[in-house]
Amino acid sequence: MKILFLAANPQSTSRLNLGREVQEIDEGLRRAKLSDRFQLVQRWEVRPRDLRRALLEENPDIVHFSGHGKGQEGLVLVDNAGKPKPATGQALAGLFIQFPQIKCVLLNACYAEVQAKAIVGHIDYVIGMKDTILDDAAIAFTTGFYDGLGYGRTIEDAFELGRNAILWELSSFSNTTRQMIPVDLVKTESPESLPEHLKPILLKRAGNINQNMLIQPIPTVPSQTNDNPIPKYRERIKEYLAERILTPIAKFQLATLAKELGLSESEANQILQAELQKIDRAKENYQTLLKQTIEEGHYPFSSPIQQQLKELQTSLKLTDSEVAEISRPILQQAAEYQIQIRTKRFTFQVVTVDERGRENSRTTKEAELFTEDLGDGVTLEMVKIPGGTFLMGTEDEEIERLCQTYDEEWLRIESPQHKVNIPSFWMGRYPITQAQWRIVAGWESIERKLNPDPSYFKDNYKGRERWTRPVEQISWEEAVEFCARLSKKTNGKYRLPTEAEWEYACRAGTTTPFHFGETISTELANYRGTDWEYEGKIYPGNYGKGLKGIFREQTTPVGYFQVANAFGLYDMHGNVWEWCADHWHNSYDGAPRDGSAWGRGGNPEYRILRGGSWGGYPAYCRSAIRNGDAPANRYDHIGFRVVWAVLPGLL
Asked: Residue 300: is it exposed, middle or buried by C-beta count within 10 angstroms (0-12/13-18/19+)?
């Protein structure tokens, strides 16, 4: 038995739970005793022409309309602009007279009695609503009705089960109705009864009706015979369209098959276009349901909702790439809205220094952030990084100077300097702390277990609790696990930053070696500010004309120096090296220009590190400095911070 589900919820009308209604039908029929006898076909945002075409294409046994009703003016469909378009009883009667094979029409909308009476002269059974009907009541009726059919009951018995379902669930109903004209709802005093004018009605066509015809199995695919070549040709088209690519070979094979079957070029093309239109309708249906699910407050998606979307994709026979293309702009908009309602502004101090490293300016700036509550009094602050374009890497002249000064040829990995466009994203205000790590390490594992206290530095620091220090001795793999747990727990989009995102965020609009200016000071950042002799070579504790400083020999609590860059980020120079998502590459030749992670080519056995650490000399703490290590390695000078973004980190 084929059930054609038609839905319309035009713009400017109250939002109905139509997605939930079709899910209830589908779920009930799937577990029913006679599940193998039913096929559910869906059409969404139905226009008048869509209704006609659906009846012609699907040849259904039951037609189920869900949406709004407008009394004498008709059922409310949609026009080409998505606005309400009434379908009168006269128009519906003129259409259904052409489809005598339809056994039942269910008009699940307010004030549908007028249309039901017009149709019943041509259809055996028509179910309509005499008056206004609550949205949840309409769904309850649907559930009971199809439960009955699924277990072999007659239309009349199934109708009574639907009416009874309304009474059982009356107490939990919402106030959303399926009507388009003002009406005073009758308030029931008890779930034991429902006013007669609010109950669904069942109309029967005069004459003999064989109800058993409604529970006979109807094959989902018409049987193919030698006399009818169209089904065979259609099935071959479906095979080729499974990957959504019609190669020259496939076109040749189809043309050959059409010739063998005696189909004209026009007939073959019509069949192809019909299949392509089905794919387009499936995309439209997925898009409509996805938007409706978000509008009804189900975003961020729970695991059950994600599973339902996956099942919807399967039922609509959409590919992963098609779903990704549909979902990307919708989810980005939804995600940005979720963040927007949690965003607040904060102030911070930005310092610049002269060539000697002495402070020469201090200004107060503002930025936006949102906060994740991790529990136990621990929070995670995420700062908005505005999108923009910047020059990534170090210019050739500076590369030559650095290589001569430090006798380090490997610094050429910072070239060639290239322009990168970065979309807006959110980045951790600080590196992840030991407190934040401890909380997330206690959450459910996804790929691997996490040590809740891996750090080497466990003492308090100058009156600050040890838990405010950045977590270290963290591998890249463990940092990725942290992001996965955080995303699952918060329904967020957390990941490691791409290398381009990290440098863009660190520079915050500057082009100097440090966001402070031409040099750096140990009064503003934690690094080795004294000369270091290693294997007969002296590594200076100052940069350029800057002054030497101190060597603390340990991490400092995040935000310890109380100064940020122009984006509001702290500890971008020194303290701990920070993992990025990218694979290691020996130069920027061929690097992405869109801010995405560089996951192709290079050395996948190493991952990128940025920012320098408490143990590194100042040249190793520049905005452009690059480092790398194996993803399983852990050291007391390596930590990380996270970003939140819809765009994927590792492509």
From this structure: middle
Interatomic CA distance for residues 311 and 298, integer angstroms: 16
Q: Which of 56, 59, 78 is nearest to 2 (CA)?
A: 59
Please give the structure tokens belonging to residue 143.
Answer: 């559930």
Q: Which two three-digit tokens encode residue 571?
A: 């500890």
Q: Kindly report the number of other CB atoms within 10 A of residue 332's CB atom.
A: 15
CA neighbor of 177 nearest in space, from 16, 292, 64:
16
> What pLDDT, on a 0 to 100 scale, did the predictor assign at position 166?
85
* The two three-digit tokens of residue 139, written as one number: 């769904």
Residue indicated by tokens 């099942």:
311
Q: What tokens appear for 598 in the block?
A: 């560089």
Specify the amino acid at residue 184.
D
87 alpha-carbon distance from chain centroid: 36
Q: What amino acid occupies position 140?
A: A
Cβ-proximal residues to 397 (8 Å cutoff; 6+ apart), any chain: none
The amino acid at residue 294 is I
How far apart are alpha carbons 550 and 541 in whole angstroms?
8
> Whole-angstrom Cα distance, residue 602 to residue 582?
10
| Distance, CA of 620 to CA of 627 (rounded, Å) | 9
Q: Among 397, 393, 641, 412, which Cα is nearest to 504's? A: 393
**10 and 85 Cβ atoms separated by less than 8 Å:** yes
Give CA–CA dist 167/449, Å, rounded: 50
Please tell me what DSSP assigns to residue 595.
S
Distance (Å, whole) CA 185 – CA 175 = 9
Alpha carbons 366 and 124: distance in angstroms, whole number = 69
Count other C-beta atoms under 10 Å from residue 458's C-beta.
10
Query: Which residue, chain included where needed, has tokens 């381009």?
Result: 500
pLDDT of the residue at 176: 52
Residue 7: closest CA among 284, 295, 197: 284
- In angstroms, the CA 413 to CA 627 distance is 9
**DSSP string for residues in 405-436:** HHT-GGGGGG-S-EEEEE--EEEESSPPBHHH
Q: Residue 64: name the closest of 148, 7, 121 by CA.
A: 7
Kindly list the averaged pLDDT for each block of 10 residues, start to end, along the chain of length 651: 90 78 87 88 89 91 88 79 83 88 88 81 87 80 92 92 82 46 32 56 69 42 57 90 87 91 91 92 93 87 88 92 89 79 94 97 97 96 96 94 88 95 96 98 96 98 97 98 93 92 98 97 98 89 96 98 98 98 96 92 93 96 97 98 69 27
Predicted pLDDT of residue 40 = 92
The answer, yes or no, to whether the previous bond of 454 is cis (omega within 30 of 0) is no
Q: Annotate 633-648 with three-state secondary structure.
A: CCCCCEECCCEECCCC
Q: Which is nearest to 132 in space by CA: 14, 288, 224, 290?
A: 14
Measured CA to CA, the distance from residue 508 to residue 337 in angstroms comes to 25
Helices 265-295 and 303-316: crossing angle, nearest 10°? Answer: 170
Question: From the CB of residue 157, how many other CB atoms can be counted at a distance below 10 Å?
Answer: 15
Q: What is the DSSP letter of 134?
A: B
